[in-house]
Amino acid sequence: MSKKSHFNFAEGEVLLIDKPLDWTSFDVVNKLKFALKKQWGKNLKVGHAGTLDPRATGLLIVCTGKKTKDIERIQNADKVYTGTIFLGATTECYDTERPVNQTFDISGISKDNLVQCASTFVGTQEQFPPAHSAVKIDGKRAYDLARAGKEVAVKAKSITIHKFDLTNIALPLISFYVECTKGTYIRSLANDFGQRLHNGAYLHSLRREKIGEYSVEDAWQVEELIQAIQATKDNAGISN
């Protein structure tokens, strides 16, 4: 899919972004909002369809104008992720945003054990989101409560993992490919994977490859898209 050179942001655009490491999803949205307002001097509706954690990269879909009505439909689509799991240690937030808080001996775990364990996750199940997540509890984000040192009681959610393949095993790192339904936390999957092996694990890296029919292969780099917005010389980007 070739990238567009002409936009109508008010009428509506679905923008595919390759989110950089350590950016929040809101960082991307705010960057685009600022660029759009600077170019045309008008505030536009801008929203994203599905949050990515700061330590994750990959496909983030941003909708503008009337296309913001499509956000729920896009969010409901299945997702595809690739990444790595670190076996033999845990962190408080289940990924690399917090330091390791416990280590485990992995010398007795074989590749067959790992493959068999991964297979047990395929199907519909109840999954607990991480305490450090965007889930709302009494109107507040769970990660805000967790970072404030408050006890966080998250509720389990029904999710489906269609495929969980281990694509490379070079312990302590395990590369994976996952196809799953919306609301699946890959950080929780990594943590649960370690627990199911009577060990420990955390998400070492994560990249979102697809949301429904949309692929990161067709995504803009943030600065590349900003330049494309700035290159729109006339008012074609805004409808009155």
Structural commentary:
There is one protein chain. With 240 residues, the protein is of the alpha+beta class. The protein has 2 domains: 13-76 and 213-230, Pseudouridine synthase; 79-210, Pseudouridine synthase (2-Layer Sandwich). The protein is built from 6 helices and 13 strands. It has helices at residues 25-40, 71-75, 111-119, 142-147, 186-196, 222-230, and strands at residues 13-19, 46-48, 56-64, 79-87, 89-91, 100-103, 123-127, 136-137, 140-141, 157-170, 173-180, 201-211, 214-215. The strands form 3 sheets. Strands 1, 2, 3, 4, 7, 10, 11, 12 and 13 form a 9-stranded mixed β-sheet that branches. The protein has a two-stranded antiparallel sheet with strand order 5-6. It has a two-stranded antiparallel sheet with strand order 8-9. A hairpin with an 8-residue loop joins strand 5 (89-91) and strand 6 (100-103).
**What's the CATH topology name of the largest domain?**
Pseudouridine synthase
CATH superfamily of the largest domain: Pseudouridine synthase
Low-confidence stretches: none
Taken in chain order, the helices and strands follow as EHEEHEEEHEEEHEEHEEH
Task: Give the averaged pLDDT, no decimals.
Answer: 88
Secondary structure tally, helices = 6
User: Radius of gyration, Cα only, in angstroms?
Assistant: 20 Å
Give a brief outline of the structure:
The protein is built from six helices and 13 strands. With 240 residues, the protein is of the alpha+beta class.
